[in-house]
Amino acid sequence: MRVAVALLGSLALGEAYFRPLAPRAPLSSFSKCSVAQSLSHGGIGGNGGNDDVWGGWNGGGWNGGDDEHGGAHYGGGLGLLWDKYNEVLDTNPLPTKAVTSLVGFTIGDLLAQSFLGEKGAPLDVKRLLRLASFGLAVHGPVGHFFYGALDEKFPKKDAQTVAIKVLIDQVLWAPVFTVIFFAWIEVLQGAGLQKIKQKINQDLVRGVTASWKVWPLVHVINFRFIPPQQRLLYINTIQIGYNVFLSMLASRKA
């Protein structure tokens, strides 16, 4: 139930903030849209300007303007942090996405150990480092190339293209990702080939079917609304919760 509510909430947020900007090139060429135009006439927050879809919020902290990330600047330290993140993302996308995934997997395991582990048990630092290293060395870099190739092959945002990309991600990539994940964790625990096979045979179906319950709707929003450069950040935002599950699954004894 909580997963369904979270996904429906994500869909509502996606509809509100990521209206289709179809078809669009990279972050530098967001098109004008009716949402921004309505905001310019006193929309949410007060004094909207005729800015890009991300812009138009001058009241309440948002300051619209034409920039490469759609014109939105949130006032204060968060805005500076967001602008800096996007700047680094543009200049060094691979390491930035790797670190983004490191943060997502680290938080996910911390939550798993804090709320689902044995009560009063000390933090398992080795386990935390195993999950964090997977995010840094595998999830971030592989996601950068995988989703980049997927967007290059299927650049449109229509329903058929989105469906194809979701199917590729879940039918082809999800099993491969799950196998790599188990193998990585087991190798870092010193497991041999036989133990790795045993772990995969034990938990592969569980991992993939869990993925099918969460990620299809998440990726419909992803491929329909999210700018390509922001895909991995969006995925990692959702992935924090999913990483709690992966952390617990990885810690099961084979």
TrEMBL record:
Membrane topology, as annotated: Multi-pass membrane protein
Keywords: Membrane, Signal, Transmembrane, Transmembrane helix
GO cellular component, one term: membrane
Domain of life: Eukaryota
Subcellular localization, as worded in the UniProt entry: Membrane
Signal sequence region: 1-16
Transmembrane segments: 170-192
Record bears the keyword Signal: yes
Pfam families attached to this UniProt entry: Mpv17_PMP22
Keyword set includes Lipid metabolism: no
InterPro entries: Mpv17_PMP22
Family listed: Belongs to the peroxisomal membrane protein PXMP2/4 family.
Name this polypeptide is given: Mpv17/PMP22
